[in-house]
Amino acid sequence: MNYLRIILLGGLVGLASCQPKTDSSLSTPADNSAAVATVNGTNISQNFFEQYIKAITGKASSELTAEQRTQALDNLIRAQVVGQQAAKDGIDKVPETAALLELTRLNVLQQAVAEKYLKDRKPSEQELRAEYETQVGSLAKQEYHAKHILVATEPFAQKVVERLQKGEKFEDVAKHESMDSSKDNGGDLGWFTPDKMVKPFSDAILSLKPGEYTHKPIQTQYGWHVIELVETRDLQPPAYDNVRQRLEQVVQAKKVKAYTDDLMRNAKIEKKLDEKKAEGQKPAEKKPG
Asked: Which CATH number fits domain 137-234: 2.40.50.140, 3.90.1750.20, 2.20.25.160, 3.10.50.40?
């Protein structure tokens, strides 16, 4: 059983434990299909079994071998047995468990709402082209090839600069002094765009010309850097056809975001997150002037 199946099995345990006490079947709404199994008087319907198979394999049960169907049913029965025990022990009422079950329910509903909303709203070619231009416009126009030497303190980094000024090779100093794993390559970081680096580092790169290095050490959360810009090159955006599928996902996500934003605007929402904290605070006393 792979990891995905374990997760889904866990979800089914949760669903089983959330069944109303008066419901004697594990099934979908308006489900009149025959039972494929009964566990302590609770029916597992054919339709529910099909949904389970589809969730873990993406196929219909008829596409599986008899052995695979039997194994799947055994897994579902086990989930029902464990779920019934969880409900009997009150585990589904434990705050942490109840919260996870509710989060799972909300996640499933959000996905279902998104799928329903997008069903008749497929992205048009015009929308995809417009999104492509937007994405390309936001991309970096150049890539940078750089090396760096990372040390722990500013004084030591300044000594590294002085050694470079006296003619020592950048690669040699990096191999002996740098704390970064790139030291094995003489500090070489390869090609990257500025957005891939922390801001102080990228700002320093943008201030250099090919062949130059920073004469003042640059501090980041990792330590102190001496950076050399090796070369730059123009960055070519990916071809439209190569990213079309990704563009569809982006456009669809924006459509759903706009729809849910509209739902938010029309909902009556009261935020009370900090009310108790505010109630417990006393007004600050004014000091005598």
From this structure: 3.10.50.40
